Amino acid sequence: MLAPILSARMCAMSGHSHWSTVKRDKASADAKRSQIFSKLSRAITVAARMGGVDPDSNANLRLAVDKAKEANMPKDNIERAINKGLGVASDGQSYEEVIYEGYGPSGAAFIVKAVTDNKNRTVAEIRSMFSRLGGSLGGAGSTSYIFGQDPENPSFTVEVGDPETAGKLERLHEELDAHDDVQEVYSNFSVVVN
């Protein structure tokens, strides 16, 4: 008589372990952290290749290392990224910085700065994001005149009042920013609430 009661109790408890919840949360946090570390590592590699390994004389490297430290990136990873920029990397990959320009719905301009080891793959993925959300990838110089020397302050903004178009523009900005190769995304749209 005792055995059926115990087995029913055990069945009711399955799937509610503390470890399964912790494991799921940890996996999610680790994936986000890994993506951030990858972006930071690429930025450090390119900065070291372009301006040398001395952070005192290379402002881009100093900024990239400071960002990595803020994100609690291990010192070994930072040093490995700097060595990769010098060509001392053991995996044979070389990264380069590229800039893509394009237009979203309603003519909103975008500049996307990326660091990639495969320009063909990256441009295809970014072009796909633009076209899927109603935009198009432009050629070099197609939107840079809007942003000038300071991409954070465009010369003019496109005001979007339509909620559907605003949603597409925001999704495009978020998807571009979430891409592993993309370092920075700048746009000139602003959502107007009616």
UniProtKB/TrEMBL annotation:
Q: Where is the TACO1/YebC-like second and third domain?
A: 95-148, 154-189
Q: Where does the TACO1/YebC-like N-terminal domain start and stop, copy by copy?
A: 17-87
Select a single GO molecular function from the record's annotations and give it.
Answer: DNA binding
Gene Ontology CC entries for this record: cytosol
User: Which keywords accompany this UniProt record?
Assistant: Cytoplasm, DNA-binding, Transcription, Transcription regulation
Matching SUPFAM superfamilies = YebC-like
GO BP annotations of the record are: regulation of DNA-templated transcription
Q: Which family does it belong to?
A: Belongs to the TACO1 family.
The protein's matches in PANTHER family, at most eight in alphabetical order, are given as: TRANSCRIPTIONAL REGULATORY PROTEIN YEBC-RELATED, TRANSLATIONAL ACTIVATOR OF CYTOCHROME C OXIDASE 1
This chain belongs to the protein called Probable transcriptional regulatory protein UU77_C0003G0020
Q: Which organism is it from?
A: candidate division WWE3 bacterium GW2011_GWC1_41_7
